[in-house]
Structures are given as C-alpha cells and as structure tokens.
Specification:
Strand content: 15-25%
Radius of gyration: 23 Å
Strand order of the largest sheet: 19-18-20-21-22
Shape: globular
Number of strands: 22
CATH topology of the largest domain: Rossmann fold
Amino acid sequence: MRKSSVRILALLSVLAMSLAGCGSDVSDREVKNGNSAVEASVAAHTVTAEVNVNYTAQKLGELISGTQGYKFEFADNGGEVVFNTIGTSSVSVNATNPDGGTETWVVNVNAIDSTSPTFSGIKDITVKKGETVDLKKDVSVADNFDKQIDFTVSYDKQDTDTAAVGTHTVTYFAKDSSGNIASRKANVTITGEQDEKPAQTTPTDSSSESETSATSQTTTQTTTAAPAPDGKSANVKFYQDRVVIAGDSIAYGFCAYGYVQYDHNIAKGSTALRQYDDTSLFTFDPTGTPLSFLDAIAAVRPSLLYISMGMNDVNLIDDQTYVTRYKDLINKVKQRVPDCVIVCCSITPITAASNFTDINNIRTFNATLKTTIEGLNDPDVIFFDAYSVIVGPDGIYSPAENSAGDGVHLAAGCYQDLLDKLAVLLDSKGVKDRITEIESKR
C-alpha cells in the first residue's frame, strides 16, 4: 500500500461539521508518487476523496466526472493508494477510454475528513433516587482520523431539576478536528419517592460549554407548543417527529442542532448526488449499523423523507446531470419505500462574502430542480424552496446572520425556520392526511 504525501490546506468547518466534495483546483507542480514524477503538462483532473480510505486507480478515476466506461490503472503499477493526511496531493493514472485509447492523467486529490466520530456504549440508565451514576462510564468515542476524541454529556436546558423522579434526557456530544459532529441522546430515569435524597450524576465537562449549550437550546425549541395558526402551521411537531433527513452536512444540521433525532438522520458532510451511493465514501448508521444511503432509508422506512443535497455538486457537474441523478435517486427510494412522501429541497444560498461558488450556479441548479420535480406530477414527491427561506432581502444571498460562520452552512435558528415553512407547504398539499393514511396501513 502506498501513502501519498500531501500539502496541508485549510478546509471549511462549521456547525462543527465539514462541507466537502467541492475541491479547489491545484496549481500545476511536479509531485512524487513512489519513484515516478508526474509531469505538469499532462491532462489534470480534480477530485475529492476521503482520508484514510484505500483507493484503487479505478475507484479514484470513477470520481472524475464524465468517465463512464473508462478503465484506470496507476501509472507506476501500484495497487492502492491511501491519503492519510488532510490536504491535496497528486497521483498519476493511465486512463483508457471506451474506444481503447490511453492517456496519462494527473489526478489532483483533495483529501478530506467528512466522517463523524462514533459513540459506543451509550444506553438508557435507570437509577434510584439518591444513587450516584457516572454518565460517562463504559461510553467511548472513536474517529477515523483523530486518534483521541473527547466528549461531553449535558442535560437539556429546560430540565431544571435533574434529580427529580422521572425520565430526563441527556445529550452526548463529540467533535473531531475537522469539525464533524457526533450527537446521541439517552434517557436517565430516576425512580423512588420525591422526598428521598437527590440522585447524584456527573453529566458533563466544562470544557465544551458552547457545543453543549447549542444542543440544549435547540432541544428546547423542538419541544415548544405548535405555533399559532396566523400564517403558520399547527402541525410542525407532527412533521418534525416523523421526518427523516437525508443528504449532506447542511442537511445534517437538523440533527446536529437537535431538531431531528439521531435515528432519523441519514446525512453527513461531503454527500453529493454524483456519489451518494459510493459506500467507500459514505455509510450511514441510523439503526446503529453502517449502511449505504439507500439501505439506510429502507431500514428507517420513513413516511416523510427530506432530501437536501447539491452544495457539493454545483462546482463539479452541470444542472442537467444533477437532476438526472436526482430523478434516479427518487425512483430508487420509491422502489425501496413506496409508501413515503419525498420532499426535494433546493440548495440554500451562500453569503455575498463567500467565494465557495458563483451564486448563479446555485440558482440555476434550483430552477432546474424545481422544473424537474414539479414536472413529475407525483403528489408524493414535493419540491421545497429552502433557498427562499434562507435568502436575505436582496433575494440573492444569505444574510450573514443566517450563516454558521463560513458563508455556506446555516446558523442553528435557520432549521426552525425551515421546519416552520416546510409545515405550511405540507399542509397546503394535504400531507398530514397522507402520512396518517400511510402509517395506518403499516
């Protein structure tokens, strides 16, 4: 196995997550692969790959857009390459097109870490009032890149008496050096008489107050009463309890900020329409077992599925390829879960200060997606204009206050706005009755 040397680059990190999949071009330079030098004059292509994952030349070459039917081999006859450091490097491949012609290409690889840490040992706990329990006992967290990950445990903010008899919710929270989040909830049930000595627990570390307070705050928001009917929906909580979120790091914000429960999350950084089904890059674990994107959806079997992907596509494919992949995904979802309402979410805007992409790319993708989804004439497949929910008064860019800091990801409060607007849209299409019908037949 060969290991590629890399040059460290700063990567986007927000929501305590990394958005990936949109690698920047790398200037021509001579790099070393084994004992061979890659010449800067040959054709160059840029791809994004996951750190610490083994790639054959074929798997790496297939990440290049427009290479269907090509065969790839490493120019130095190596079998596999692993990018063990975050950043950019180059490898040389021999690309044979379907007609048999062979060229040598430079593949500029942007190695990223988009994999969240993984908890083990979390379980619900039952104790008698007055007993002491360590909420971190037997719990550990591992990461694909960082050798050591710390984690915190916190009670929900609205829980003012954590020693009271009853069931209390705690949140386990970890973040790796690339900003990827792991967030899991558990119940602590205290039994006994009210006048007994209060139970003693050791819930959290003070070193991560900002992260835990964000999770606690959003949990409070999800348990408030349904909004008043004046221009709003009384069914926000109904949809929120049922929706399963599928997509990229922006979609993952619903789970990261506590708006959607972890076992309803099928989203992580770097996921894109062009490669969501590549299990060497992406697996999802809503049931506790790593699964492919479609297998995870089938395992959860949602009555309401919210798909949000595209920010990782706008710089690498065109809008027609994007919607072709989208329609293929919808068809595959309907084959696996035919009794499901699918919401296809537009790409959210970036801020004016962001240079992540040209805002017109996003607008073009969204317009094509809207036309495509509405053209299906399927009452169970609905287009949701999330762009318009997030956009500022200029109608073009996201205002700075809607950004989580990098101009691309969303601030926590945006997810409540999205849920509120989504509920209004779903009400207008009678989706609550449709979901009730679906659930009554299962």
